[in-house]
Amino acid sequence: MKAIQVGLLGIGTVGSGVFNVLRRNQQEIQRRAGRGIEIAMVADLDTARAQSIVGSAVKVVKDAREVIANPEIDIVIELIGGYGIARELMMEAIAAGKHVVTANKALLAVHGTEIFAAAHQRGVMVAFEAAVAGGIPIIKALREGLTANRIEWIAGIINGTTNFILSEMRDKGLDFDVVLKEAQRLGYAEADPTFDIEGVDAAHKATIMSAIAFGIPVQFDKAYVEGITKLAAQDIRYAEQLGYRIKLLGITKRVPQGIELRVHPSLVPARRLIANVEGAMNAVVVQGDAVGTTLHYGKGAGSEPTASAVIADLVDITRLHTADAAHRVPHLAFQPDQMSGEVVLPMDEVVTSYYLRLRVADQAGVLAQVTGLLAAQGISVDAMLQREAGEGEKQTDLIILTHSVREGTMNGVLAQMQALPTVLAPIVRIRKEELA
Question: Which is catalytic among the residues 105, 205, 253, 299?
Answer without folding.
Answer: 205
